[in-house]
Each structure stands twice: as structure tokens, then as C-alpha cells.
């Protein structure tokens, strides 16, 4: 028997006080993560988006996870050093990777991972924060830490320095275990006892993730709040359950902002009486249109964004015939998340301008050359 993630649920919300959501999360089985950005304005959103995008599609165990976090720490630090508008940006990261019958955790900052088993909640990660250190030293009690005026001061973050210390843990897990990953927007507003009560209430993980976020907002919602829930299960070798597609959820305002929506299907022409001349004209126009579309599908290319929020080059025309039939296909999907682009860059890069493949490649190359820290290898769709 082997363990699998049987069910997931996730929710991210701006909260009741903040103007933008700088949290980000990734659901990309077998790796899942929450990141809480900091730095003000657009910077925090950029850092958290870079962190979760770096984990998309990752597999392996302790070493691959630690290496991915170390690499993205360097990229975030370099970006903050080279771009004045990103100065001081950073992010927490709490990542969980399923590896056989164990869960591998990679952790920096004060986001948290919890294990909920048999109705009991256990914190798996240590907060890299001022009050967290004081609690571990015995200077503060957990209850005092929850009310401490400097409870948000963290002592480790991705991007703060060229090198970062990463907590890497391997946790034995069992079927029916529930894993909670969350930003401090939840734990700063909702006590562990209240989290336990909510999880004991049961229901779908989507419902529980939303319930936790609602509880944080009802308690004041002083920060962005993000929750990811994973339910473990067992699967035999003979089990043929299809694999779920990987999903990346970046900050809600950053998924494909700036990209024009694809044109919707036009209203169908109402049928009526048609004479032979009209039928002939319609048929001729249809042939010409079919030829034009066929040529256009081969020659035309445009730059857009995937549903998971990554910059991509598409071949064809940006039109949908039906919800399941389109006149375009992705031929190159980069690892550049749209969240790390400025609003102006998203507006100009993702305007679905039609051109040749070369012109589309030039537009992406111009973007990455202007921002060297975005130079990431493309992947095939």
C-alpha cells in the first residue's frame, strides 16, 4: 500500500484590513505550499508568487525540496537587490511533499503546518519569529505570544539574505490524516482550540478551508489569510485512479490580470428562409473563412497566460468556438508567473496581439532580458 492525497481544499482571502492579498499557494501533487509575502505595494505579491511557482511540478524528497527553496531564495534576493521597486521584499514558505508513507516539510518563516489526527491538532513547524523564539526559550507562554505586540516580527524569510536556513522535516503519516498549511493570517486570529473545533465539525475540505478563513475574518481579519487542507489516503498498486492535473493558485489579483478575456462565442444566426443565391453566397464565404482560419491557425501566434497563471505562447487565433473547442493551443509554457509582472507589463505582454512565432518569442525574450531574474527554462505543454 502507498499513501496518496485523496482530497484537497484551499482558500485565500485578502482579509478585512489589507488592500491586497500578498499570500500565495500551490497545489501541485505531490507538493503543496503556502507563502506569505512581505515588502509592501507589489513586492510581497511578487515574492510569494515566485516562491510557490518554483515548487510547481516538483517531486522527490528532502533534497529536491530544500534545493528548490534555496534556489528561489537566491532569485528573490537578486530581484530585490536589482529592482528598487522590489527592495525589501521577502516571503515565508511552508511546503509539504508527499514521499511514500511520509510527509516532507520545507519551512521558513511563520506560516505553519499542522497534523490533525484522531480529533487532535499538532503543530509540526516552529515559527521563525521573535515570539516563537521566546516561547521555545520559555520566556513567553504560547498564550502570551498570541497577544505580544511584536508577534508578526519574523526572524527568517526567503529573499532577506543570499543564503537561508531551511527547516526540513520528515513526518510519518497515516491514512485519514489531515494536513493543514496556513499563513499567520489564520493563526494570528484563530486559536488552535478553535481550529480544532472547526476541523472536528467535518465536511468537505473546500468547506473547511473556507470555514477557517471565515473564522479569521470574523475575528478581525487583520491580515491576508490562506489555508490549504490535505486528506491522506491509501492506494494499492492495482488502483488505477487517474492522476489529478497540477494546479497553481497565485494571489487572486495576479492570476491573469492585464490579459484581455477571450472573445465569447457570437450569438447564433437565427434560421429563416434562404434562397439559393443566399445559400451560395453563404457557402462561398464559409469556404473562404475556413481557408483563412486554417492558414491563420498555422501562422498566427500570440502571447497569453495559462489558467494556472504562467506566461505562454499560443499558436492559432484567440477565439473559442465552444467552451471545449478553441482555435488555439499552447506550444510553449514558461515558468514566468504573471504575478511577478507589473500591471503595465501584463497589459502590454498579454494583449493577445496576433503575429508570427518569431514575434511572440521576441516579446517573451524582451520581457526576460529586461528582468534577468525571470530567466527560467520553458516547459512543453
List keywords for this structure.
2 domains; seven-stranded antiparallel sheet; five-stranded antiparallel sheet; alpha+beta; disordered C terminus
Which secondary structure elements does this structure contain, and how are they paired or packed?
Layout: E1 2-13, E2 23-28, E3 31-38, H1 43-53, H2 62-82, E4 90-91, E5 93-99, E6 102-108, E7 112-117, E8 120-123, H3 130-137, H4 142-147, E9 167-172, E10 178-182, H5 184-187, H6 192-200, H7 205-218, E11 225-235, E12 247-249, H8 276-299, E13 301-305, E14 310-320, E15 326-337, H9 343-349, H10 357-370
Antiparallel strand pairs: 1-11, 2-3, 2-12, 3-4, 3-5, 5-6, 6-9, 7-8, 7-10, 10-11, 13-14, 14-15
Helix pairs in contact: 1-2
Mind explaining what this structure looks like?
This protein is 31% helix and 28% strand. The protein is of the alpha+beta class and 381 residues long. The chain has two domains: 2-252, Phosphatase 2c, domain 1, CATH 3.60.40.10; 276-374, no CATH class. Strands 2, 3, 4, 5, 6, 9 and 12 form a seven-stranded antiparallel β-sheet that branches. Strands 1-11-10-7-8 form a five-stranded antiparallel β-sheet. A hairpin with a 2-residue loop joins β7 and β8 (120-123). α1 runs antiparallel to α2 (62-82).
